Amino acid sequence: xxxxxxxxxxxxxxxxxxxxxxxxxxxxxxxxxKDVWIHKGRQLTKGEIDNLKSEAEWISASSLWKFxxxxxxxxxxxxxxxxxxxxxxxxxxRELLYLSLIxxxxxxxxxxxxxxNGPICGTSKCSISNKCQRxxxxxxxxxxQ
Length: 145
Hints:
Elements: H1 3-20, E1 30-31, E2 37-39, E3 42-43, H2 46-61, H3 63-81, H4 87-111, H5 137-142
Antiparallel strand pairs: 1-2, 2-3
């Protein structure tokens, strides 16, 4: 592909991303190691990292956080076990459970950046993989005991 085509495609994709308000990898917090956190292409300072860690610790210790994550899991389980009428309901239930895992993993990674667990699953009990990304009975067994 010519350089002009590559340049045009890059500009077009940037325009589409901005035009539709899409999120890119640069928009999310990337925890590379204990001292390397990146957001929007910029490495955060030690003070910013410490501030985010303390906020994450406060959130994870709060009763509201425990109620919120339990609420999301309950709705996902109820949708899957009680209310599911078709495959769309099961998919919706799995997505709720997936959202719960993402939120819990994000807060855990922020508070425990010495041992980055990956995007979803990092529990040592996980027999599938260190970054298992599936939702199902496997997750009920070891994520929510």
